[in-house]
Target: Ribose transport system substrate-binding protein
Amino acid sequence: MVQNSGKRILRKVLYVVLAILFLIICIGGCIFIWNSLSSNGKAVVDSNKQEIAVITKSTTSQFWKSVFSGANAASTEYNLGITFEGPDNEEDYEKQNELINKAVKNGVDAIVFSAVDYNACAEAINYAVSQGLKVVVIDSDVNSDRVSCRISTDNYLAGKKAGEKVLESTEKAIYVGIVNFDKNSANGQEREQGFRDAVEEDSRVTIIDSRNVLSTSEDAKNETKWMVRQHPQINVIVTFNEWTSLGVGYAIEEENLADETMVIAFDSNIVSVEMLEKGVVDALLVQNPYAMGYLGVECAYRLINNQSPKQTRIDTSTQLITRDNMFDEECQRILFPFD
Model:
């Protein structure tokens, strides 16, 4: 009896101890949750970290995934909080403006931004700066003199490289079709202008048609098909971003024009590299999106910590890749970056 009574007492003590421990855990959890909420009721990853909002044209293509990889690497190195957002398509400037205003409301310290529309995004960017945020532009510019730093391909020079490659053609007459993306996006227009300036003085060149399409492979494919059917003399097509490059490539394949049409395209992913290897695409001008993301966040870090950026304009360079050099070690690193 005494032994059983002792066991009952021991069990009761154990239950009390467990109940106290459970209560302590619950109270601690409540305190953690309370401290993890901002005044607006939004969870904060780490209130001690400076916060950077990376707002891009979209988030789905290989180009933007590489941008985020670079941005994420820099955020880890500099112990920053980071968000990565963009609209569902590369024409939706209204969604971008909403994301800018959300970043201001959430109290981030800086925005790293690539503009869908050079003019239509300017007011929202100016408002963000007026609220104390630092703004760094990557890839595609915005019409604001309040941006602290711009990091991108030299788009005009990249367009000239595309033109110079076209002029290597041995054709006596070069009939060009241009497939560009949103005409309000600064980087596409700069690339096209560089291309036009490179080819305009060669008497062999005639630009037959120039079309601006939605930044989707389907729209680019359909417009390219229409263009080559309307203008069968076209023997060169130049296009200026990842989605339009895929669309042009698909159109050339489906119309069986690979042997008679030179295609100069921009950016790369697994599909466009395969097109290059098969001869559907003749050259890819490949940018360095990883560097844009990394340097954009690094520059934002310097700005919010009262350090001057190393440069206010940084060219992240492009590489012209063809079937002749695509298997070189340097080109392989560019085509298949380690994320």
Observations:
- The chain has three domains: 1-35, 51-153+289-317, 155-286.
- Confidence is low (pLDDT under 50) at residues 1-10, 12-19, 22-45.
- The chain has eleven helices and twelve strands.
